[in-house]
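Fill-in record for Prenylcysteine lyase domain-containing protein.
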Amino acid sequence: MKVAADKDVVPFNSISVLRVLSDKDAQKYCDKNKCDWTDKKRPVTITKIFSPQEMSDDSLGKLYSARFWTYRHTWKAYPKLVPRELADFPPVVLDKGVFYPNSFEPFISTMETSMVSSANAAQLVVKHLTGQSVDRIGNGPIFAETKAKWWWPW
């Protein structure tokens, strides 16, 4: 069974326009990259594409009516994840008072999930130092037992 992440099903995972160049910048890029920018009415963009495999010039030609230059950077932006045993993941609490917020990195690795993990680690630190549980309620955590409000920047 083929799924959308398979390289034979979709040519790319994501595509985004990073910047629309001014005429002056477009000419600069073309001078630097030895390209011919004859149709100055057409907007020139810098575009980023993530794909399961390196896209050929023919594949890119199907996406763009005109392409002046291509820079390729090959790396595994979207690795294929395989199921793992729970025991394969490192623990969040390594020792008394020692926490590993990004222990889930083998499972998912994004800045957003790192931020959530760090917030959870901060709650564990408060619990370790004070012995009190911390609940996140409203615009910040409060101590469950004392209801004393704490200010947190997130």
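KEY FINDING: DSSP finds three helices and six strands in the chain.
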